[in-house]
Hints:
By secondary structure, this protein is α+β, with helices and mostly antiparallel strands. The chain is 32% helix and 23% strand.
Amino acid sequence: MISRRGALVAGSSVLATVAAGGGVYLTATHDKPEPPAPKSVSPDGKLLWRNWSGIQTAYPSARLAPRDEAELARMLKTASAPIRPVGAGHSFTALVPTNGTMVSLDAMSGVTEWQGDEAVVLAGTRLGALGPALAAKGRAMANLPDINKQSLAGALATATHGTGVKLQALHGDVTALRLVTPDGRVIDCDAGRDADIFQAAKVSFGSLGVISQVRLKTIANRRVRRRVWIEPFDEALGQAEARWAQHRNFEFYAVPFTGLAVGISHDETDDPAEVRGPDQDSAFLDALKALRNLFGFSVPLRKAAARALLASAKPETAVDEGWKLLSTDRPVRFNEMEFHLPVDAQLEVLAEVVATIEQERPDVFFPIEVRRIAADDAWLSPFHGGPRGSIAVHTHYKDDFSFFYELIEPIFRRHGGRPHWGKLHNLRGQQLAALYPRWDDFLKVRAELDPEGRMLNPYLRGLFGLI
Length: 467
C-alpha cells in the first residue's frame, strides 16, 4: 500500500512515460492556452477588477475602502451607482461587476466584542482569519465551507455552506446584523427588531445595502479527526445516507471517468493532534487531467487506468482543531455550477449527472462535490423550508463550461434544484419566485430600503426580474 500522494505524483510521471513510449506524448502533455486576458487598464484609465476564476471583470469608476461604519455610511450617500460590495471574488456569477462604485470592507475586519458565547464580527473579516481569532477565546464556528478565503459578508450574501445533516449554512449562525443602506442609514436588526429586514438581509447578494457587522453563535473549539479515502462510486452512493447520519461532517466527490469516489469525514475527538500533511489535491487533479489527455478517446480504458492508478491508495487521517481541517486550499482555478436538491432526489440526480458527463463531455476531469445541509429560515436561503443536498460540478478554468447550462442545469431544474447564489446558473425572475416562497416579500423589503436601485447592477436587475 502506498499513500494517495505517492500514487498520484508517481502516477503522473508514469502516465507521461507511457504516453511517450506509445507515441502520444504531445497528447498527454498538451495543455490549453490561457484564456484571453482583459486589459489591466480601460481606455479611460480605469483599473481592472477580475474574479478568482477570471470570467467576471469590471472597470469601476470608483473604489472605496471605508475604515469604519461611519465612513461607510458617508461614502454610500454620494457614491455613484451601481454600488457593489466586493469580498474575495470567489463568486462565479456577476454579483460584483459595476462601472459605478466598488466597495471593499477589507479594512473593516476582526472580532470587536463578545456577548456571552456570541462574537460580534466586522463584515470584511476573511473566514481564514476568523478561525484563529475565535480559537484564541476557545471558540469556533460551527461549520466552514470548502474554501475559507471569502469575506464573512460575501459568504453570507451567497448562502455559503459546509456539509453536515445537523449543520446549517453560515448565515444560520447569525443572530443579529447591522445594515448600512444606500442613503446612509444604519439599521440594527435581529429576530425581534426589524425581523423582516433581518430575514431578508442574511442572504441578500449585497442588494439591500452593505452589512457592516454581524453577531455569530459559536461553539467550543474542538479537535476533529479528518479521514479521506477512495472507493468505488457505487459503494459511495450506497453508503452516503448512512455516513451523513454517522459523521459530524461528511461529503464525497464523484470522479467522472474513473468509477471512483473520494470520501471525506470529520468527527470530534479528544485524540492528540496529527498534523495534516501537504496538499494533495493539486497532484490528484494533475493525474486526472493526464488520464483525460491520454485516454479521453476511450471511457473503458480511461476508467481502467484510473483504477490501476488510484484505487489502492491508502486512506489519510489528520487530527487538529476544526478550523484548520474543514477548509482546503484550492490553487487550481475552476468554474463551477452548484444546485441544492431535495434530499430524496440528490443521489439519483448525482448518478444522472455523472452518466451525462461520461456520455457527452470526455474533456471533464474535475471531481463533483456532494454535500448535505440543514434547513434554516432566511428568505432567500436555498435551504429555506427543509434540508437540501448539494451537487457541485466543476471544470478547469481553461475549459469550456457551456455544458453547465446545456446539459447539467436542466437535470437540476427538473428535480426542483435551487442554485447556489455564487455559482453559475441561468435562473431569473419568475423561475426563482417559483422556488422561493418569500421571494416577493424579499423584493418588497429591497424596494423599501433601496427604492432607486442604487445597489443593483445589470445582473441583479435581471435576477430580480426588473429588466
